[in-house]
Amino acid sequence: MAARRTLAECTVGLGVTGSIAAYKSAAIVRLLTKSGIRVPVIMTRAATRLISPDTLATLSGLPVATEIFPPRSGSSPEMAHLETGQSVDLMLVAPATANIIGKVAAGIADDLLSTAIMACNQPVLFAPAMNERMWTNPIVQRNVATLQERGYQFVGPEEGELACREAGTGRMVAPETAVDRALQILLSRLEGLRILITTGPTEEPVDAVRVLANRSSGKMGVRIAEAARDRGHRVTLVAGPLHCAAPLGVERIDVTTAAEMQRVLEETEAGAEILIMAAAVADYRPAHPEQGKIRSGAQQWDLRLTRNPDILARIAPPRAERGAVTIGFALEVGEGGEERAMQKLKSKGLDMIVLNDATRPDSAFGAETTQPAFLFADGRIEHLPLLSKADAGLAVIEGAEVLHGLKSNKAAKGVGTSAKTS
Ligand code: CTP
User: What's the domain range around 129?
Assistant: First the structure.
């Protein structure tokens, strides 16, 4: 089996062609390099008139290639590799004009970018950008179909206002959408674990317009998902209503209530080696939510609540029997937090619990920082310093990887012993 790789060990070749959407390529480079991915850029001559190669070279930290025969003094070994299409894990062409799509479909390799695409034996993803009349031209459509039949992939174009001041289909997708697809393709080819993460609050309906919710922003779970993705794992994020941007490159399932979250988890958890339950699940829900809107007028009214099922307590024990890792969160207030968190870990059957103190201002809901403690089933407690939520997310993932490694080793040894005795 190939060794597990992280995104920081991956290379995405970015091809930029001569559409006005070329300016979006700067954001694409930024988003990809955020995960540590190397992003060598090849630009067509037309693209260099729309965005400066210096901009993309500065953002990627690598020289930008434009010519198939660069001046000898300026040639870089990097580009020699790209020409053969061997050194990239994925080639993203964004924006992709009708011209580059047509050239690749016809097998024409008459400049550096078309040569690199033709020589590339890894996935190629096109993000087309053109006027609607060009996009709907049967010749372009036939070229797209030809490429799709041969395994080339496309993201967009989408409908909206076009640079030519017309509206229609042909606009390149947002940089986030292109990067989301590119990361998903990359991650599907790495040897990562399947990690299921829940985050955000749940909202329990009171009536048709009101909900019972909590102050969770969902940020911690999102940072854990980003850390897991950057480590090369395949992530599914089950999210309540988020109050922060969703991570790119992960599968996202949106839910509202605790009951929905439970249903989704029961359907998906079996496929996940690791479950991290960072969601602030409502412990109670209105017992009899009104179908319509509760009218104002009464001086007071009582809201009767009923207990929500404890999702972790139901899901964790069978996971433990299968050797799968389950991590919970505990938000505690005041003295005795560690004892209560350890008690939760034991009663729910978890491998690890992440304890946060709700009274610390720098660890509160919505904050950028947190100072958690990790509690383990063997009684060990690890106190972490004040960390950014991104660093805390990475620490959670590293902890989860260690637990998974220990459990798989145990399982492997167990199999070995029974094989000998049988
Ligand atoms: N959790 C869950 N289902 C619930 C409530 C909580 O799966 N109905 C999960 C949370 O996602 C978290 C862990 O259980 O990972 C602990 O949640 P927390 O609310 O801190 O603890 P409770 O067990 O609900 O106890 P209490 O609210 O009394 O502190």
Answer: 7-186
